[in-house]
Amino acid sequence: MSDKVPMTAEGYARMEEELRHLKAVARPEVIKAIAEARAHGDLSENAEYHAARERQSFIEGRVGELEDKISRAQVIDPATLSGDTVKFGATVKVVDEDSEEETTYQIVGEIEADVKQGKIAVTSPLARALIGKALGDSVEVATPKGPKAYEILEVRYS
Hints:
The chain is of the alpha/beta class.
């Protein structure tokens, strides 16, 4: 897979920090735990050994996943973008045309998405509907509860 993975500089920095932590802290800890568990003798009935091996497997898998994503990262700094048209990295304030409820979302890479923090994946139905639209436009999004209409109140890049 050589597809570029779009992400913000903030998301890239978080991934690098997690990778650094896994390599510098978690990996040495699990190696030490495996060595200590081995010292207890019979490995076939040693729950600590099996738990440590499982943790090591998770860490190595996550390290590989992060290294892959970092190597394919296409870092986009929203602060370098501008305009009234919604693009990757934009922070968009919308109003639900039925409930009048206002919500603000930032359009980010899939790995950074966190709806609770107002970060939606560029691949999400709402983000796909918003991309390319401008201030004042209305968009309709298919949701599990049926179609929803939103009006774009604000587009900013920061």
